Amino acid sequence: MATVDYFLTGDHDAARHELAAALQEQGFTITPQQPSGQWSVERGSRSKTFWLGAFAGKNQHLVFTVDFLDAAGALVARVQRATGHGAMAGAVGIARANKAFEEVDVAIGTRLSARGILANVVRA
Description:
By secondary structure, this protein is an alpha+beta fold. The protein has one domain (about 1-120): 2-Layer Sandwich (TATA-Binding Protein), CATH 3.30.310.80. It is built from three helices and six strands. The protein has a six-stranded antiparallel β-sheet, covered by helices on one side.
């Protein structure tokens, strides 16, 4: 599992909005899960990934989850993806999924830093 924790300051709803905007700019659709509040974050096409495998390119189906945690009053957004996700496209698909996750990490960090709400980042 690839995981990045973003420690956010300020208003929690505003921080969630900025995180959502960063993900949407990367082409992801966000589906809130009830009652946990977790987000399912998805882009690409399952069928194109199934039929084209590594050749699906930007249409490769990717799914991340975002959990929200409280750390002494600060909001922590934990973005995760299963490390084997993309296996349908083999080794190339896994490498592309890893690259996409890194790109999302940079986009989130850049946006949250620019808004002055990113206190810390922990990658695991």
